[in-house]
Amino acid sequence: MTIPSDSSGTGPPHGTEQRDVSTGEGLSALANMGWQFLLTMGVAAIALGVLVLAWPSQTLRVVGVLFGIYLLATGV
Questions:
Q1: d(Cα 44, Cα 53) in Å, to the nearest integer?
Q2: What is the rounded distance in angstroms from the CA atom of residue 53 to the CA atom of residue 55?
Q3: Helices 59-75 and 23-54: crossing angle, nearest 10°?
């Protein structure tokens, strides 16, 4: 069994080394997630509008239930 020469035990534990991640990459990932979220919520709003037009007699109930689901999804 061989032991690597740099394993003297004086360095940081495995997995705790600092990573060189620039702030721009983190903001880019956050912006990408935000864009996807807004797109999903926009599609959900369009679907809600189509369902309101498709079921005019049940509009209040459908809108109430779907708006509640929409708010739960947004809250999460």
A1: 14
A2: 6
A3: 170
3-state secondary structure 8-53: CCCCCCCCCCCCCCCHHHHHHHHHHHHHHHHHHHHHHHHHHHHHHH
Q: What pLDDT, on a 0 to 100 scale, did the predictor assign at position 13? A: 66
Which residues of the chain, if any, have pLDDT below 50?
A: none
Domain ranges for the chain, please list them. 51-76
The pLDDT assigned to 59 comes to 76
pTM above 0.90, yes or no: no
